[in-house]
Amino acid sequence: MDDRIFKTAMSKFATGVTVITTEVNGEVHGMTANAFMSISLDPKLIVVSVANKAKMKQLIDESGTFGVSLLSTNQEEMSNYFAGQIKENFDISFKTFDGMSVIDGALANITCDVHNTHLEGDHTLYIGKVRDILMQEEGMPLTYFSGRYYNLS
Length: 153
Ligand code: FAD
What we know:
alpha+beta; Pnp Oxidase, Chain A; binds flavin-adenine dinucleotide; Flavin reductase; Split_barrel_FMN-bd; oxidoreductase
């Protein structure tokens, strides 16, 4: 099957947008991801899918922890920045929560320890055991559909 058909079909599944963060040797790294899902209530587990070629993969493997920030509707630029699509200087607002750097102004921040990993094709699934959750903002989510951002409100 042509890659384009697969990508286009998958893009018809509307999602929210997250920024995954991790820290190695005091340096924070962020990456935009929409392959995020809640998977279990007891224990509380979530999953993110990270491309094997992404810097983030090596860094999570090293740190064993990561944060997931669920972006709000006014954080489109933040999403583009952490997807490597904006090269100019950008005013990044990290905040510290549960000893981790997460995105300030997100709808919620989730901190996790890596519980399990599955190498699947060109991506790695990181199952995160949730350590803590911070609900920051009331607002609406940034949404992504068919390769574009949408504002639910
Ligand atoms: P880089 O590409 O090096 O980092 C990303 C950007 O963030 C760079 O510009 C870097 O300079 C900047 N940056 C990171 N940390 C800091 C910091 N501390 N201070 C200043 N700048 C910093 N990829 C996936 O693997 N899984 C997904 O689920 C996924 N979903 C996506 C959803 C959307 C809506 C978009 C737009 C992209 C998605 N991507 C996803 C692609 C992914 O975001 C990019 O390929 C990204 O560039 C990979 O990041 P990286 O870890 O390789 O690091």
